[in-house]
């Protein structure tokens, strides 16, 4: 099979897998959220008014999220980029940590650019979801999403990551993005606040509600160094640790009343 047909088939198969897991995780986390209403981050703010519009937009934007990794793999195959390193299991973890750090750096600075007056029109659609939900993960302009995800098409010319690392990272980013937008906190712990560089769902949720803080994706490193971390982020995480009841899989109390005109 010609390379072009092979990677075109890969693109559509990867897109199909992304769509299937988007709905599977979406319904699964919605089921869990309904049983843990006290874990909602923005209590008192409605978050479901735009669901249908978010899903429609996500179906388009998920395609643009799959395109960059396909371009990167194709460039490697055609010899336009340096030959990828041979994949070894013993090197998989350090390479994955490296790709996470490099992507987080890309994401932070590209995200800051998208918040400038010149590029914000591309990013504004995503911020219509003031109280994000798992369905709003990909609710963004197709070009906006492509710019954030184009890391995979660029990094192959700088660091010759094996294809397995590039594909694995895109899958990880898919699930991480959905957890980061789910609107409910399940990951609050001491590892998600200072001095740890890791973060939890509250981090990106505050970006949607506060707008000018928390531009990072996996780590709070760049936000802390450059002074863009939300002033009360660590305190919010600690409060979730101390006050939120244990996770339950049974129906609990009804969710706090939402103001339907506030999101």
TrEMBL record:
Residue stretches in coiled coil: none
Keywords: Membrane, Transmembrane, Transmembrane helix
Pfam families to which the protein is assigned, alphabetical: FA_hydroxylase
Subcellular location: Membrane
Ranges that cross the membrane: 6-32, 53-75, 87-109
InterPro entries: Fatty_acid_hydroxylase (IPR006694), Sterol_Desaturase_Related (IPR050307)
Domain of life of the source: Bacteria
Domain (Fatty acid hydroxylase): residue spans on this chain: 96-228
PANTHER family according to UniProt: STEROL DESATURASE (PTHR11863)
Protein name: Sterol desaturase family protein
């Amino acid at each position: 099979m010609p390379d072009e047909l092979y990677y075109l088939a890969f693109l559509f198969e990867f897109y199909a897998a992304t769509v299937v897991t988007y709905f599977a995780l979406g319904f699964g986390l919605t089921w869990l959220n309904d049983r843990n209403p006290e874990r909602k981050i923005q209590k008192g703010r409605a978050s479901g008014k735009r669901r249908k519009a978010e899903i429609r937009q996500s179906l388009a934007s998920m395609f643009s999220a799959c395109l960059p990794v396909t371009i990167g793999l194709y460039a490697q195959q055609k010899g336009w980029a340096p030959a990828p390193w041979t994949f070894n299991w013993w090197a998989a973890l350090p390479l994955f940590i490296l790709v996470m750090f490099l992507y987080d750096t890309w994401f932070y600075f590209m995200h800051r650019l998208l918040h400038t007056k010149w590029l914000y029109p591309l990013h504004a659609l995503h911020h219509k979801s003031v109280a994000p939900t798992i369905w709003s993960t990909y609710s963004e302009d197709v070009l906006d999403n492509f710019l954030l995800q184009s890391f995979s098409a660029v990094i192959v010319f700088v660091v010759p990551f094996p294809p397995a690392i590039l594909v694995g990272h895109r899958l990880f980013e898919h699930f991480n993005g959905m957890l980061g937008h789910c609107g409910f906190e399940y990951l609050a712990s001491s590892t998600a606040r200072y001095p740890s560089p890791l973060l939890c769902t509250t981090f990106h949720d505050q970006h949607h509600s506060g707008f000018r803080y928390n531009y990072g994706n996996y780590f709070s490193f760049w936000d802390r160094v450059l002074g863009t971390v939300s002033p009360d982020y660590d305190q919010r995480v600690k409060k979730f640790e101390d006050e939120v009841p244990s996770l339950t899989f049974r129906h609990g109390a009804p969710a706090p009343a939402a103001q339907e005109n506030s999101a």
